[in-house]
Protein 1
Amino acid sequence: MQLHDLLADLAGFDGAGVLEMRDAAGFVPGRPVPVEITSVVHDSREVRPGALFCCIRGNVTDGHRHAPAAVAAGAVALLVEEWLPLDVPQARVASVRAVLGPLAARFFGEPAFAMRVLGVTGTNGKTTTTYLLESIALAAGDVAGVIGTVGARVGTRALPNVHTTPEATELQAILAEMRDSGVETVAMEVSSHALDQHRVDATNFAATCFTNLSHDHLDYHESVDAYFDAKARLFAPVFTRRAAIHVGDPYGERLARRATEEGVVVSRFAVEDPSAHVTARRVVLSSRGTAFDLVACGGEPVAVHMSLVGAFNVANALGAATTALVAGFELDAIVAGLERPTVVPGRMERVDAGQDFTVLVDYAHTPAALESALGAARGLVAPGARVVVVFGCGGDRDRAKRPLMGEVAARQADVAYVTTDNPRSEAPGAIVDEIMAGVPTGSRVEQVLDRRAAIREALAGARSGDVVVVAGKGHERGQIVGDRTEPFDDRDVAREELGQLA
C-alpha cells in the first residue's frame, strides 16, 4: 500500500490518529508522501526493505531507540510519537499502540471480517474453551484456526506466535494467513494485557466469551478492578454485538449488566442455573470423562459425554456451547463438537505409563485455578485414596498470590510438594518461602526446590487410586531460570520418572 492510503483518516479506538507527516527531508509536506509500504512491523529484527516500522513504547524498551536499526535494515517510513533525526518519512501520532491495530488491520485487508472470529477471555479456562470451539467448528464442517497460549495453528499446522494474544501487527498477519488458507472460524484467546495494550483493536468478533475472573496479573494491573476493566473492553459494540458470559462467576453478572447497558446482546450461562440461557444439569464426573445434560434457551435437555475431566470443564463446555450458539452454530454440531475426543495440552492432561494411580498435568498457576484443579482431582480419587500436588509460583510475577496458593494446596491436597516453577531472576528459595507463608502449621507440605526431584518424590510416594496433579507449567516445554530457558516439560518428566519407577 501507499503510505498515505494506509494512514488516511486513521484513528485509534481512543481517537489518537495521525497528527502530522514529515517527508525524508524533515519537511511537513503539502501533498501525500509517495512511499510504498510492503510490510508493517514493530520489531526491528523483523524489518525487511519496504517496511513501515512502528515505534512502540513498551514496558522494557522503547521502539524509538530501535528506529535507526530498522532504517538500516530497509524500513522506508516510521510511525512515531516523537520526531526522530532519521532520513525517512515519518508519521507522528499521540499513541502508536492506539493506532497500530486499525493500521495493521487495514494493511492486511480487515481479515477478521472475512471469518467467524470467536474471542474468549477470563482468568482461567480460555485455552480449553477455544479448543472446544475449534472442535465444534470442525463438527459443523468448517475449516478452523486457533490462536492462544499454546500457539496459533490451522489444524496441525503451527503458525508463529509469541504471546497468548499476539501484538497487533502479528495478530492481523496471522488472521490474514488464516483467511488466505480458507479458514472459516477462528477461536482466539484474548488476554487482559492484549486488551489493555490495544493489540486486538479493529478486530471484529462474531461473538465473545467470558469464563471467570480471579486473582492474577496484579503485578501488571495493580488492582482487581483494573484487571476487570481490561477484560470488560472486549464486551462492547466496538468489538462485538453478541456475548456469552458466565454468570456463575460473581464478575460475570457484573459484566453481563455492563455489556447489556452498552448495547451488546448477552447470553448467560452457568452450571445448574435454571435462570441462565444455557445450563448443565445432572453432571456426572469420572476419571475418564464427564457427562451432563445440556439445556439451551429453554429447550429439551440433550445428553453430552465429554472426554475432559473435572467440574470446571463443564463450565468451559457451557462457555463454548453458548458462544457457538450466539455465533450461529446449530445445536447438533455443538453437541457433536463437545463429544469429540479432545486433548488440551497441559490442561488436566493425563500421563499414563501403566501405573495404578492417576497423573494429571495442569497449567493451574493462580489460586482459583489450583483450587479448581485439586477439587476436580478430589472427585476422581478412589475411596480412601489421596490427592497429591506438585506446584510452585513464577518469579518476577504477582507475588501476592503466592501465600494464597500455599493455603489452597494445604487445604485441598492430602500431600503437597512446593517446588520451583519459572524462577526467572528471583531466588527459588525466596519464592518458596513466600508460598509457605500461607501454609498452616502442621500441614503435610514438603519443600523440594528441584522440580524433577519433587515430581519424582510425588510419584514414588503415590499409592493405588491416588491422583497426582503436577500444576503450574502445563504445556510449557521450558523452565525460565535467570535469562535462559532450560528444557523442561512436566509431561515428559512425569513419564520418564514413571518409567524409572516401573
Protein 2
Amino acid sequence: MGIHRGAIREGLRALAQLGLIEIKPGGARVRPLHEASLDVIGPLLDLQDPPDPQLVDQVLEVHHTLFATAVRLTLERCDDETIRRARVLLARIAEARDEAAYFKAEEPLVGLMVEACGNLALRLARRALTAQFWNRLQTAGLGLKTPRKLLGPLVRELDEAFETRNAEEGSRLIYSLMRVHRERIVKELERTHAIREKEELR
C-alpha cells in the first residue's frame, strides 16, 4: 500500500495503548472492545457526527454516578469553606439566564466536588472524561441547560442538603439533576440522527 514500516509500527503501538490490539511475536491480535482502555471513548465518539446516542448515554451514566459519589464523599469530609463555595455556585446556577452562564457555574461546582472529595481515582476519571467527552459534546452543540421549572426546586433542595451536610440526600439530588441533563442530551442526539436518516432515504 506504499506505507512506510515506521508509520505502521506507530499505528499499531497507538492501537495497543488504547487496548484494541495485543502485539505478540509474529503479529497483532485484535482484542474485544470491552477490554480496551478508557481512552478509546474519544475515538469511538468520533466515528459518528453527531456522536452515537447509546454510547453518549452510557458515558453520561458513568459520569453521573461518579459525580454523585464525589458529592457524597465531599459532604462527609469537607470543611465549612468548601460548603460555602459550593452554595455560592449553586446560587449562580439557579440565577443563570442562558447556557453559557449555567455552564460557567456548573463546571466549577463539579470541579470543586471532585477535588474536595479526596479520591484520586475519581479525580483522574473526571479528567479523562472531560478531555474525551465533554469537549466533544460542547463542539456538537449539546449543552447542559436544565429547564427552569425543574432546576429551581432541585437547586433549593441541594442547597439545603449542602447546608445540613446531608451526604446521601446531596448525592441523590445531584444524580437527579444530572439525569435531567442526560435525558435531554440523548433525546437531542436521537432526534438529530432520526432527521439525518430520513434525509438519507430521500
Protein 3
Amino acid sequence: MIGKGTDREEVRRRARDKGLEDAVDLLGIRSDIPELLREGDVFVSASKREGLPQAVLEAQAAGLPLVAADIPPHREAVAPELACFLYPPGRVDAAAERIVRLLESAALRAELGAAARRFIERRFGQRAGLARLQDWHEGWFAALQAPSKPR
C-alpha cells in the first residue's frame, strides 16, 4: 500500500493476525510513484470517495490493469476495457476475485495494461490536449468575429 489511507492501521492489524506481515508492505507517502508503478502487476483503488482519481489515471498511464471500486469518478477515469474490473464498493470478495483473475493471467494483464495506456494517451495525451485547445480557440475566435447584437 502506498499513501496513508484511513484504513492503514486496520490493514496492518489484519496482516499481522493472518501471519502475512512479510507479504504486505505499507509504504506510506512516497515521491517515487512512477518507479513503484513500473514494478506493479495490478493497481487497486478501494476509494469510497474521490474527486479526480489521479492515482487511477497514473496507474493506467503506466500500463497497469486495475481493480477499482465502482464509484462515479472511477467509472469516468477507467478505460472501457477495464470497466468489468470495477467492483461494488465495500465488497472485498468481489475485489479479491478480480485481483486474482488478473494475477492468474499475464496475457490478460498485458492486454488490459496496453488498453489502459492507449486510453490515457487518447484522452489525456499531448495530442488530445492540443486538439481540445485548438477547438476552444477556434470557437473563441469565431465568437469574436460574429457581429455584435445591438443593445
Protein 4
Amino acid sequence: MNKLITIITLLSVFLISPLQAQEKRNIDSLVFTKFYSKVLNEDRKIVVHLPLNYSRESSKKYPVMYVLDAGKLDFDTSDRLFALSSSGLVPECIVVGIVNNKNSRERDLTPPFMQIDVEETTSPAGQGDRFLSHVEAELIPLIDSCYRTTGYKTISGHSRAGLFVLYTLIERPNLFNAHFCFSTPAWRFDNIIVHRLESSLRKQQMSDEGYLFLSVGENENANIKSSFDFMRLMLKKLNLKKLKWDSYVTPMANHQTNPIYSTAKGLMCWSKKLMLK
C-alpha cells in the first residue's frame, strides 16, 4: 500500500502543471524582491516561494532551498516540493530563486579558475568567487532576517549553474548542507572542477553531514556523461563519511529536460538520507 501511495504521489509530481500547483497555494506564497548588492555593485532580484501553510503556522521554521537560474528550476523545485511534502515524503521548504541579471549568468556562475567561454582562449575568467561572497554575505542573511528559517540550506543548479554549486562545495563546504547538480558540464578544461573538488574533499573538515545529488540525462552529450561518470568514480574512491551522495541517470532525458524529470528523484533521495531518518 505504501508503494502504491508513493507511485501515485510521484505521478502527480510529473503531471501537475506549475499553474495548477500555484493556484492551489495562497497568492502570498510568491514574493518578488529587489535589493542592492554592495558586493556586486548592482541591483539583484530573487523570487521567494513560501510553503502552503507559511502564514498559518506562525511559529514554524523551514529549511531554505536556494535555486540558481530563477524562472525555471525554482518553479519546478517548488512544485515538486508542494506535491511531495503534501504527502509527507519530504519536508516543507522555502525556495529562493536567484534571478540572473542581464548578461551576468556566465560571469557569476563560472568558477574563477575556469574561463567563461570554453572555446575562446582569450575569454575572461569567471567571477564565481564574487558571486559566492554576495550569496554568503548578503543574500543568505537577507532571507534569514525576513523569513522563519531553520538554518538548514541547500543549493541547486542546472548546467553551468551546476559548476557554481560544485564551486560552493569546494570553497565553502559548510555554507550549504546539501547540493543538487543537474547536467553539469564538469568536463570543461580537462575536468578541472572534479580534480579541485577531489583535492578539497580530501582536506576539508565538514562540521555537519552533507549531501550531494548528481543527475544526467540518458540522451545528453558524451562530454557531460563522461564527466558525470568520472565524478562518481572519484566520490566512490574517497568514500567520505560526512558526505552522503546519490547519482541518477534520467531515462529518455536530454540536457534541457533532465532537471525537470530528476528534481523529484533528488528531493526523495535527499529526504530519505538526511532529513527524515
